[in-house]
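How it folds
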Amino acid sequence: MMISDLPHHLLEEILSRVPATTLRRLRTTCKQWNALLKDQLFTEKHHRKAPKQPLLLMLKEFRICPLSVELDLSVNAPSIEFKDALNLKKGSHSSSQDSDIMEVFHCEGLLLCVTRYNKLLVWNPLLGETKWIHHYKEKSSYALGYKNKESCHRDYKILRYRQSPKREDNVDEFEIYEFSSDSWRFLDGISLDYYIQAIGYVSLQGNTYWVASDRKDDYSMFLLSFDFTTERFIRLNLPPVPSTMMLLSLVREEQISVLHMNHFQLKMELWVTSNFGTETALSWSKSFEVDLHVLDSERYPFFTTFLLDEDKKVVVCPGPSGLNFKNVVYIIGENDEYHKEIPYVRSTQEPWLSCIFNYVPSLVQIQQPTQTRKRKRRSKLEHAMLVTKKQEKKRRHSIHIETVNVD
């Protein structure tokens, strides 16, 4: 018996445990499988059951590039292999300049990109699906998440927020874009007395997390979450350390990790949550720390993102690019066992903020507006009503003729 001859429920159960990268190659082999892989019920089931095979991606020279990092010290010294950039399919509303990506944010298989010329792009690299979204506003920041519903379908949304500088009166502006309606709307009744850090933020289980601080006290830092279901901000606790510079990352797509830079003591600490997803205050445990004296030529390094390998006690941090920077990725181990600086670009006159993150390929499709489907249903209804009216008119005309003939 061939696998395609299996009962539908058994086939679905088997395929829901196959990695997404493998299933993508199967889409063209069988119409039945292709239809199944596009079904939202199956997509959600696959997301829950399939093994996660994260890919390491980096924003480098305005492109999203895969890379592999070798951290097995028993074999070789730490190394990085940079691969060719992912192919971005250009839509009818894009041009070659629009492919220059300035910022990227990821949420469970989807990438939200801000391009050089202020356009928003939602992209699933695995499926090759893209969606260009207009209404970009300068000096704004964006986050991607989804509404957790009791049903299996996710309603994806984009949060746009704009805040005045810290020392000025807080004039905040918040908007939500809904994929289901392809429209923006303002969020009313939200006024924040704190400032959201625009770098080093993450998405986990559909919600977004930032480091934030009180407007009048830069050192009173805390973890801020936006719940895309309730569309409200939630204040949480950070590790019990002096508030200086902090960045967020994810560990195995399950926990939040914090990189804490202590420039006074020239050390860097890595912390991980141990009870994420509970209603209680977050518990934090320190994974390890790094002495920044190993970075002799750059005593006060500036990072925008990082990745933590908690098992190997290694942190990977790309530095910024530009003529005044070293343009390297730092690989640093616990207790200063080793430290490696790997160039990721030749000297460049045009700076950008490099970004490194784990991307988990997903079969999730970019949501299309439900209004389109409603219009199609309405068109069919209108067509049916028109046919009925014509038939009724024809019937009345026939009755009139018969009446005339009788007379």
